[in-house]
Amino acid sequence: MQSLSFRYVKNYSTLAGNIQTMSRPQNIKAVFFDMDGVLYDSMPNHEYTWIHSLKEYGIDFPAEEAYMNEGRTGFSTIRIAFEKYLDRSPSREEEKAVYALKTKLMAERPKAPVLPKMQELIKVLRQEGIQVFVVTGSRQPSLVEKLSAHFEVEASNIVSGADVKQGKPHPEPYLIAHERCGLPKENCVVVENAPMGVESAKAAGIYTIAVNTGKLADKVLTNAGADELFADTKTLFKSFC
Ligand code: CA
Fold this sequence. Notes:
Number of domains: 2
CATH architecture of the largest domain: 3-Layer(aba) Sandwich
Structural class: alpha/beta
Helix content: 40-55%
CATH superfamily of the largest domain: HAD superfamily/HAD-like
Shape: globular
Bound molecules: calcium ion
Largest sheet: 6 strands, parallel
Oligomer: single chain
Number of helices: 10
CATH class of the largest domain: Alpha Beta
Strand content: 5-15%
């Protein structure tokens, strides 16, 4: 692998009038990966289950909204959807019912595959002695087993929804990962796919690489503060190797 230093941001050239010359930290020693939409292609399942659970309540939830709200708690997304599309708040019963339906539909979806080249990328980073963390708002009970089986990430290197008081876009999740790695922020980078995840990482003061695996316009991620942007995980992998 080539040095991780001074890799210029080629991909910004795809954004009209928004070419940047910022470079990555010179000496990366830890990478904090978001999970949904970065390690796993799981967002299509969230998109499907949001659209179909809210439809039952007369809400035509656009696919893009699933990606814009990625990272919020389920109840928070339901409240936003009701207020925006029905001009009213949901009752407590409606919140619970929509969430229960979404959970039921999710259990019926096929398992999300690992995104291309992410296992290879994590392997390469480890070979270079770089610490690998996963920072996710998810609270799935099977999280640790899944990440261990697919990416050999140990439990102590996982920051989940159960570890934080305030989820993304609050900086707490990434600040916890930073504290656990014991390194200066200058030696850390984050990989995110969602605008609220990018906001969280930037608020934590960490260099943030965005990979646009979803359905949002690139500018949504750069406006959220991403320092670099890649169109997919294959190009992300190439940028490290
Ligand atoms: Ca994500």
